[in-house]
Sequence to fold (118 residues):
Amino acid sequence: VQLVESGGDLVQPGGSLRLACAASGIIFSDYTMGWYRQAPGKQRDLVARITSSGDTHYIDAVKGRFTIYRDNGKDQVHLQMNGLKLEDTALYYCNAQTIKYNGPLDFWGQGTPVTVFS
Fold:
């Protein structure tokens, strides 16, 4: 199983980035896909997730600014980030979760860095 993130970059406050996660080795449509982030010295936290049926959930800090969407035909999940703030600086991880196969499965990518600087 591989989850490969891309799209992280340096950006100024108010800017936009689109993160991508390409999955392989899984039946993508069976998985809830999520984006998590970990700022220096802090724990890894959920940012947004999208179920196999397209239901989405966002943390309050990113509602109205970030959009998660998936392309089941390409086995990809994206995170469109607009109105970036300094506090969005973190390493962003892609996550795939399912309980479909007789128990929970949980996979992570290596992360892509997002740095918002003024």
Observations:
- The chain has no helices and eleven strands.
- The two ends are 37 Å apart (CA to CA).
- The CA atoms of residues 50 and 56 lie 4 Å apart.
